[in-house]
C-alpha cells in the first residue's frame, strides 16, 4: 500500500474513531479548509459506524488521489456483513436507523463529490467516496448545513452505540500526570463533551469541548471538534481557538476551554469560549474564565490568560456540567490523588445529572 494510503481495521467503538481522525488530518494536510474537513470527517464517521452496526467488523482505507490536475481524498469502507437487500431504498432520505449519526448514505453522498456503492445480500458492502480540492469540489457552508439539516429530519430517536463513560490518561513529559473522565447526562448513552490531551516538543495541550445539546447530535459535534484539535493544535491557544471556531461553523456550536502547559517555564496559557473554566489547586488557588459566546457562531474576542504552576499543583478544566461551587475543603484528597482518580471523582461527586459532565486534570508531580 502506498505511503499516501492507510488501512484501518474496524472492530470496536474506539476503532471507529481512528479513521475519523486520520481523514481529518489528511484532509487538512493536503489543503482542505475547515468546512470541507468537517464534511469528510462526518461522512467517514457515518461509514465506520455503519460497519460496526451492521457487520461488526470491516475496514476503512484512506488515500490521497489525483485525476489530472485535481487532487483529493478517497475513502473506501468495506465489510463482509449481511449486505443491503435494497440499495435503492437505502439511498432514500431518512433510511438511516439508530446506531449511526442519523446522516445516512444519502447524506454521505450529498456531502461528497463522488459516491459509489456495491452491496448485495450475503457478500457485504463496499462504499467509495471522494472529495476534490478546488472550486468544483468546495462543499461550502450552506451546502454542508443543508446536508446536516436534512439528515436530521424525520429521525426516530436512534442513538450512537458506545460506552456511557469515557476516560483516558497519559504520563506526559517531565512528570506531568494527565487524565480525563467524561459521562453523558441521565438518559443518554453518549456525551456531548469531549477531551483532548496531547504533547509535543516541551508543550502539553489539554482541552475540553462541550457541544450544545445532548445525545448523538452533540456527540458528533464534540467528536469533530476533538479530531480537529488533535491534529491542529499549536502552542498559540488563541490561534487554535479561532481555528476551532472556524471548524465548527455550520454546526449547532460548542463551548471549549484550551490550555497549553510550557514545561520548561511551568507556564499555563488558557483561552476559552462559553461555560468552561480552568482552576489551579495547590500552592495557591486560581480560576480563569472563558469569553462569552458559542464557537461556530458568535463569540466575544477571547483573551489569552496565564498562570504559573509549581510541583504538587493540580490543574482542573471542566464545563458547566460540573457544579460551579465546590472548593478544596469539599474534596481535600485531590491534593495527593492521581489525576485519573481526581477526574472521575469530580464528575461523580459534583457533576449534574441533567447535563453531560467532563473533567480534565493535569497534576504537576514533584
Describe this structure in words.
- The protein has 366 residues and is an alpha+beta fold.
- The chain folds into 2 domains: 5-152, Histidine kinase-like ATPase, C-terminal domain (Heat Shock Protein 90); 166-364, Phosphatase 2c, domain 1 (4-Layer Sandwich), CATH 3.60.40.10.
- The protein has 8 helices and 16 strands.
- The strands form 3 sheets. Strands 6-7-16-15-12-13 form a 6-stranded antiparallel beta sheet. It has a 5-stranded antiparallel beta sheet with strand order 1-2-3-5-4, covered by helices on one side. A 5-stranded antiparallel beta sheet has the order 8-9-10-11-14.
- Helix 2 (34-55) crosses helix 7 (237-247) and helix 4 runs antiparallel to helix 5.
- The N and C termini lie far apart (46 Å).
CATH architecture of the largest domain: 4-Layer Sandwich
In CATH, the homologous superfamily of the largest domain goes by the name PPM-type phosphatase domain
The proportion of strand residues reads 25-35%
**How much is the radius of gyration in Å?**
21 Å
Q: How would you describe the shape? A: elongated
How many beta strands in the DSSP annotation? 16
- How would you classify the helix and strand content by structural class? alpha+beta
CATH fold title of the largest domain: Phosphatase 2c, domain 1
In DSSP terms, counting alpha (H) and pi (I) runs of 4 or more, how many helices?
8
In round numbers, the mean pLDDT is 83
Helices and strands, in order, run as EHHEEHHEEHEEEEHHEEEEEEHE
Name of the level-1 CATH class of the largest domain: Alpha Beta
Can you list the strand order of the major beta sheet? 6-7-16-15-12-13
Percent range for helical residues? 25-40%
Total of domains? 2
N-C termini distance = 46 Å
Major pleated sheet:
6 strands, antiparallel
> Which segments are poorly predicted (pLDDT under 50) over 5 or more consecutive residues?
94-102, 136-145, 147-165
